[in-house]
Amino acid sequence: MNWITNYVRPRINSIFSRREVPENLWSKCTECGTMLFHRELSDNLNVCTSCGHHMAISPRDRFAALFDGGVFVQVKVPEPLADPLHFRDQKRYPDRMKAAQRDTGEAEAMLVAEGEMGQTPIVAAAQDFSFMGGSMGMYVGNAIIAAAERAVKLKRPLILFSAAGGARMQEGILSLMQMPRTTVAVQMLKEAGLPYIVVLTHPTTGGVTASYAMLGDVQIAEPNALICFAGPRVIEQTIREKLPEGFQRAEYLLDHGMLDRVVKRTDMRDELITITRMLMGMTPAVKGSLPRPDPEPVAVPAPAPEGKAE
Ligand SMILES: [Zn+2]
């Protein structure tokens, strides 16, 4: 027993702790290879401080940086039927779902919230690429409908951040049905005279690009985001031609009239505040007077020693 507790266990612990520390504290930029301190990276909204590469950001972190004081109320999304086709590839669909829920800590691939952004009331929805590729299944359809209904009820604009590999194949035709469903949801906003703003993030592809992600009154994208229906590799193989540099990237689409703007993530909040206030007929925001997404840490006085309280 002594040999195990005194020698083996510390060895095992040291191997694991040695491996964990650098991974937790440092991440490597996938574009330029710079090692970035995690705090510095999250403060910069997961944009590389060295080359400006935009890495993925979770919907929850995005909302924390979008809403005043990082405060938002999650909008309830009706749960769809689980695994209607009893789909199985290498894994059962419910097992894949459980793994994605465990890895992301989220229920599904879209988060809907309401709150204020620069004292401008909005409803926002964000898609999570780390949850099964952000794939559009029945839940995502329900989420967009819930977001649109909430926006109409509260008379607020809807801002949607898209990121998806396309439809969720585990739900077959039912996932494709979300294309017309979400189109109808967007139409509800238009009929109510409310703005619908889409922020396309890397990557937005497939059925998502073919429905709600391209129906915005204003189409914004993050730099270098891949935005397409079929990916460049598929097109290249089909037409047997070399595609131009930057094909289907945000800047290329902006040059070719598919987008209104390409905006850095760090400037996105100010940009969205300006656009939504303009479209809602509100007074323009005065720079510097708006509440920050993350308030300055407030010094909390030390608790009174026990017995002295009251
Ligand atoms: Zn970089």
What does this molecule look like?
With 310 residues, the chain is an alpha/beta fold. It folds into two domains: 24-55, no CATH class; 57-279, 2-enoyl-CoA Hydratase, Chain A, domain 1 (Alpha-Beta Complex), CATH 3.90.226. Helices cover 38% and strands 15% of the residues. The protein has eleven helices and nine strands. The protein has helices at residues 2-25, 38-43, 59-66, 93-104, 138-154, 172-176, 178-191, 206-209, 232-239, 250-255, 265-279, and strands at residues 26-28, 35-37, 73-74, 110-117, 120-127, 158-164, 196-204, 218-221, 261-262. Strands 3-4-5-6-7-8-9 form a seven-stranded mixed beta sheet, with helices on both faces. Strands 1-2 form a two-stranded antiparallel ribbon. Strand 5 (120-127), helix 5 and strand 6 (158-164) form a beta-alpha-beta unit. Helix 5 packs parallel to helix 7 (178-191). It is globular and about 75 Å long. The N and C termini lie far apart (53 Å). Bound molecules: zinc ion (ZN). Zinc ion is lined by residues 29, 31-32, 34, 48, 50-51, 53. Residues 29, 31-32, 34, 48, 50-51, 53 line the site of zinc ion. InterPro entries: AcCoA_carboxyl_beta, Acetyl_CoA_COase_Trfase_b_su, ClpP/crotonase-like_dom_sf, COA_CT_N, Znf-ACC. Component of the acetyl coenzyme A carboxylase (ACC) complex. Biotin carboxylase (BC) catalyzes the carboxylation of biotin on its carrier protein (BCCP) and then the CO(2) group is transferred by the transcarboxylase to acetyl-CoA to form malonyl-CoA. Pathway: Lipid metabolism; malonyl-CoA biosynthesis; malonyl-CoA from acetyl-CoA: step 1/1.
